[in-house]
Design a protein that fits this description.
By secondary structure, this protein is an alpha+beta fold. 32% of the residues lie in helices and 27% in strands. Helix 2 packs across helix 4 (132-152).
Amino acid sequence: MTQEEALRMAFPAPAAVERKSAYLTEEQVAEVDRLAQPGRNNDRAVITYYVGSLDDRSLGAAYFDAHRVRTLQEVLMVVVDPAGRVSRIEVLGFAEPPDYMAPDGWLELFTGRALEPGTSSRGDIPIITGATLTSHAVSDAVRYCLALLQVIRPFAAADESTVAAAEGGG
């Protein structure tokens, strides 16, 4: 699946999808790492993400995460709703042997989960037997994306304009 196809699955027409970039300070990168624990550390300061909206209402934010599982790469799209909960995970690429790929049913265990201690293969999410490294890689990626959401706050501007409009200020 391509990135564009994955975004259309997450935000079907007539939703609009906007590509955005966040430029994190050193402090924000450190905060993402702290929040993502026990996930992996990542020193990326430039983050590209996508926000889906319909009728000026945010539907969610999609983050694409490429990471190594064992020796080869996996690419995930993690979609988070405006409440800060995972709404879907799609595997866009998996270069390890197919036997090690996370099944859809296991990925669905993250649906509705927020950034909390149990949202991890080291917490409430069980390990995939025979694919422990995949379990850790996926849960680390999900925690990383949820941490990015808290630091970047992609819905903050939309939330503030919605409140201002409701209060008669905009």
